[in-house]
Amino acid sequence: MTKVLCFGDSNTWGTKPEGGRYADHERWSFLLGVYLNMSSPDDINQETESKYLVMEAGQPNRTLIKNAPFDGDKSGLTYLKPLLAIHEPELVIIILGTNDLKAKFNLSPADIGAGAGTLIKQIQAFSQEAIASVSSRSSNIKILLVSPPEIKECPPYVSVYDGGAQKSQFLAHEFAAQAELYQCNFLDANQVIKSSDLDGIHWDAQAHESLALSIAEYIKQRILFSQFSN
User: Fold this and answer.
1) Does residue 229 fall inside a structural domain?
2) Of the chain's two ends, which shows fewer C-beta atoms within 10 Å, N or C?
3) Total structural domains in the chain?
4) Residue 113 domain-assigned (yes or no)
5) Confidence of residue 75 (pLDDT cuts 50, 70, 90)
6) H or E stretch covering 145
7) 163 or 130: which carries more pLDDT confidence?
């Protein structure tokens, strides 16, 4: 099976706008596996052969490269390489950047975009190391960089994300530039979903489903995987 690693923050972990966590079958990363393994919409209630294995790696408060004071080690840069070594994915979906908008980091949209570029470079470097190793089955890891939807400054995160809503309007542009620079795939989540009005940060259940379907269609139509014989 083609292994897909979903690397994200609380929205990948499944935090609800009203609090609590979505069940497995409600999260976008779980639903992505369902949609990827459907050959047609008629398969939704039928058992089909699984061609994709989707692995969820969401962590609340995860940033691209920064560590928040008193929050422990939440930097995506720290966690990514061990996950690549453990799971050996053919595709990594990065959907981070929302937490980097927090006022305490004082980052510009360009800074956040550069952080995404750093993660892309880390994946590409890991991939090249794998190809140079003794494994003949190693291949270039595909990358899909997803720009998160714009946020809204509303309770309980008004002070936490002070100025973040305006900055979030420019993330898609910055992420697209990084994807072009490092020649990886890009998807703007703003074209598919919106952040909830309840807290301005997290997504409702319909957004999770819509994003999963959109990413599944993108992967099937635009990302090709090399096949290896045993």
Assistant:
1) no
2) C
3) 1
4) yes
5) confident
6) strand 142-147
7) 163
Number of H helices, E strands in the chain: 7, 5
Tokens standing for residue 59: 């962590």
Domain limits for position 192: 2-222
Tokens for 209? 């489903």
pLDDT tens sequence across 208-217? 999 999 999 9
Q: How far apart are CA 185 and CA 165, in angstroms?
A: 25
| Contact by Cβ (8 Å): 85, 40 | no
What are the φ and ψ backbone dihedral angles of 131, each rounded to 5 degrees? -65, -35
* pLDDT value at 126 more than 60: yes
The pTM score is 0.91
On average, the pLDDT of the chain sits at 89
Domain presence at residue 59 = yes
Is residue 3 within 8 A of residue 32, CB to CB? The reply is no
Does residue 156 have a cis peptide bond before it, meaning omega lies within 30 degrees of 0? yes
Collapsed DSSP state (helix, strand, coil) of residue 63:
strand
What pLDDT is stored for residue 138 in this prediction?
52
Residue 42 has pLDDT above 70, yes or no: no
Contacts of 77 (CB under 8 A, 6+ apart): 64, 65, 118, 119, 122
* Contact criterion met (CB below 8 Å) for 142 and 90: yes
Within a domain: residue 154? yes
85 by Cβ neighbours in 10 Å (0-12 / 13-18 / 19+) ranks as exposed
Contact 150, 169 (CB under 8 A): yes
Provide φ and ψ at 110, rounded to 5°.
Answer: -65, -40
* Residue whose token pair is 């494994």: 135
